[in-house]
Prior knowledge:
Strand content of chain A: under 5%
Distance between the termini of chain A: 9 Å
CATH architecture of chain B: Orthogonal Bundle
Number of domains of chain B: 1
Structural class of chain B: mainly alpha
Number of strands of chain B: 0
Number of strands of chain A: 2
Number of helices of chain A: 15
Largest sheet of chain A: 2 strands, antiparallel
Strand content of chain B: under 5%
Oligomer: heterodimer
Low-confidence stretches of chain A: 1-24, 367-371
Structural class of chain A: mainly alpha
Order of helices and strands of chain B: HHHHHHHHHHHHHH
Number of domains of chain A: 1
Mean pLDDT of chain A: 79
Shape of chain A: globular
Amino acid sequence: METQRLxxxxxxxxxxxxxxxxxxxxxxxxxxxxxxxxxxxxxxxRRALAVNLLLLALLLAASAAYLMxxxxxxxxxxxIRALAGDGEVVTAFVIHDLRLPRxxxxxxxxxxxxxxxxxxxxxxxxRLATPGIIGIDNGATAFAVASVVGLxxxxxxxxxxxxxxxxxxxITFGLASGGDTRGYRFIxxxxxxxxxxxxxxxxxxxxxxxxxANAAYPWTVGTLNARSGSAVSVLALGLAVGLPLAxxxxxxxxxxxxxxxxxxxxxxxxxxxxxxxxxxxxxxxxLAVAVAxxxxxxxxxxxxxxxxxxxxxxxxxxxxxxxxxxxxxxxDLAGRVLLAPIELPVGxxxxxxGGPWLLWILLRPASRxxx
Amino acid sequence: MAGVAAPLxxxxxxxxAGMTALACVLLLLAVLASLLLGAGDVGPARALAVLLGAGDxxxxxxxxxxxxxxxxxxxxxxxxxAVSGALLQAVSRNPLAEPGxxxxxxxxxxxxxxxxxxxxxxxxxxxxxxxxxxxxxxxxxxxxxxxRGVGSDPxxxxxxxxxxxxxxxxxxxxxxxxxQRSADEIRFWVIGSLSGxxxxxxLAVLPSLAxxxxxxxxxxxxLAAxxxxxxxxxxxxxxxxxxRxxxxxxxxxxxxxATAIAGPIAFVGLVVPFAARxxxxxxxxxxxxxxLPLGPxxxxxxxxxxxxxxxxxxxxxxxxxxxxxxxxxxAVVRARRLPTL
Lengths: 371, 341
């Protein structure tokens, strides 16, 4: 349904542009700003800009709340003073050494999961095909746990997670019969693969003494409590490289939503682009899993929010990243605050929120179900 | 028509008896293995001595008080899960309908978790609560089946079930965080394993197991008629609505009982009926018949492997059934044309 509508839109858009060209007028299409600097030019969608700014404002507000709330409450004025570099020692310690690093990890993992989810959904042309659902998170987790419990493998968790994610992705996409990734069969096959890797994780945890197993337990639920600093740095590096690359792919991505024939006809080198999109998604997922464990629901919820706010003209990658970070920050905040002395792992919070959402998507009337 | 069908049926019946006998022999071997092999240091030779009436004190204790209850529980759990899978698949006409995948086990586990959290720890109450949870899970899933559009797509139903299971599992994990005292008791059980279960647990569920199996025996013919369509079944004098209701009851009894003893164990209800159908053909009566030896065979085999693979330690039974079952799930889903029941 939506494809039809989109196709109509883009045709209308092109004909409008052609009409304007024939009049020698360089006005941008309605809803866009046309920025030029010398020979470089950029077509900026006003609505996308507004959505991104809105999400950014929400993210900043949520982050302020995140920094203020907790077992040691920090007032707004204290927060500003601590961020500026003075204030009480205890407050400064709580903000700088405890909450800010965790907030940074929440931003980075949320953005990475959501962008990876958005890329994978677009690649598979299937709204449910997020890395968390088709088993890639579990693959990364299994390998990362193998590294943590030390089974004679000396690679660092991020590298192992990357290997695992790539393995799972290769199996899932390799099993997609005839490259058909649209339907539910692809998803359920992915769930099966995820179950195998989940079992492997349990198997690894059963093989080791209980102390090591407790150290590896956070991996199985997903939490920001047990992150390692080096994994966060690796994730920051990966995001710094991956996010611009993903944004640069945006144009091809919005064409890849149509059928292969249309995309190829409009000049997308499908084979190469697919490989790039898949490897970006796998990379971001793996690095995020190495920090926070499998919090896959963010990869579903973030792009959903972004898509419901944005117009359907493009693939909302930047908005997904912001929405994913927002979801992660809010979920971890809720996990820390709601049951105060007990801390809920962020993976459980997102699963409790995301599960009903997923069910709702599945049980909606058929006409509005896919893509 | 009858002339063609009769020889086929005759041939099928003869081979069914053969297959059942073979499965029973294998099951007997699995029972022996389960009694003789273990993660501890009572080896096969010492255990065999106990079986022959001799043996030292320690070996007698290990075999009689640990391995024997475990084996019996394994047989009961395997029976319950396999039969409930076959029933659920027949009534929802969906080869992927499995209590573990559809969230029925997760419903039972969540209910038991709530009961334990509220302070109930007697085995009987746990069973009843588990069965209530399974009933609710079953009702939820089957009402989803009857929603427009979902029933016709087996795969989509599994996806909805997976979402439901994940949600319920998270809620159970939430319960674990609330209360450290009961957390140990629940965590011990929520993984899905046969180790450390007592014979009393099995005795507590025996009545409901017997009731459910009797119900199944009575339901086999109506279900076989229902496979031909509702109208045909009604024409043959059955009441489709009543049959469905009773099947749901039987499934809830079976899954609730199995989950109350062993915790949630997925994929047994998928793999065993799948194998039974492949061996015995699409007739639900034959499938059910073959499920009786095959279910315990799979559970006991997986349990023995769980003891041996990581030898000084043990691993949860659910892990092994997932390793066996997930490839079957993928294979069923990838088949060009999903087999409809």
